[in-house]
Design goal:
Strand order of the largest sheet: 1-2
Shape: elongated
Helix content: 40-55%
Number of domains: 1
Radius of gyration: 24 Å
Order of helices and strands: EHHEHHHHHEEHHHH
Largest sheet: 2 strands, parallel
Strand content: under 5%
Distance between the termini: 36 Å
Number of helices: 11
Number of strands: 4
């Protein structure tokens, strides 16, 4: 008897508990193969598309303000942008695990996220690609782009030489030596309390910037802008090129799996 078990189809039709039971029956009955095929996910594609648009817009903005306080990694807006992207990557990782629990086997960041899922929930969901039940090589959604969430996480959080990502590179090439940490702390406080000052809470001090020499200014602009200017024959600067490629890859993968439009 020839049988093929499609995890995604069973999960959509029967739910997770019944799916797990059906896989056990399928293996005992001698299925030809058991595969974990994740369905197209519109939420994942949209989140990747939205983040891609944000990254591209940010690159254009940073190119225009390179060499100024607005491009310094200590600027509150820069810090907020990177924090938002960290949240975006984690949100996409959660969706990936939801549509393919076996994805934790091919991406370290997904494994880390998956470790936070409650044991009670894990009890009714497959913890590995169903293909492993039959001793065959599993087919997982994640295997099409192995390690992609680990790479994106490094890109938006890496702040050390050993784990160099956007934060570290910005610190090396866009941090302005004539502006102190206290300048940005004062700037942050001013934005946080804008419109909220009173007799009991006076307005914070105005941030005072240092004055660079003409050579310092020219050097700072050139050094920082080089991260955002696309090399000849390319579309994006070196700082975000890898992140854009990973986001494009997710969008393309989900698009290839999208249901065909009805005529």
């Amino acid at each position: 008897m020839k049988m093929v078990c499609d995890a995604a189809f069973l999960r959509r039709r029967l739910g997770a508990p019944a799916t797990a039971m059906m896989f056990a029956v399928c293996v005992l009955a001698g299925c030809d193969h058991v595969t974990w095929v994740a369905p197209y996910n519109a939420d994942l594609q949209k989140k990747a598309s939205d983040m891609l648009s944000d990254v591209v817009a940010w690159e254009s903005h940073m190119r225009s303000v390179a060499g100024t306080a607005a491009a310094d990694p200590r600027d509150p807006d820069v810090e907020a942008k990177l924090a938002a992207w960290r949240g975006d990557v984690e949100a996409m990782a959660e969706i990936e695990i939801g549509i393919d629990p076996g994805a934790t086997a091919c991406d370290a960041f997904l494994a880390k996220i998956g470790g936070k899922i409650s044991d009670s929930l894990k009890g009714v969901l497959p913890s590995a690609p169903a293909g492993t039940m039959s001793g065959l090589t599993p087919v997982t959604h994640c295997e099409t782009l192995p390690g992609i969430f680990t790479r994106m996480t490094k890109q938006v959080t890496g702040d050390t030489p050993e784990n160099a990502g956007i934060p570290f590179i910005l610190d090396q090439q866009c941090k302005l030596p004539w502006l102190s940490d206290s300048y940005f702390a004062t700037l942050q406080e001013g934005r946080a309390t804008a419109g909220a000052s009173s007799a009991a809470r006076p307005a914070p001090k105005t941030a005072k910037a240092g004055i660079p020499t003409a050579l310092q200014q020219v050097t700072a602009v050139a050094q920082c802008r080089s991260l955002f200017d696309p090399p000849a024959g390319t579309v994006h600067g070196n700082l975000v090129d890898s992140l854009v490629t990973d986001l494009d890859s997710i969008i393309y993968r989900e698009g290839r799996q999208a249901p065909a439009a009805k005529k």
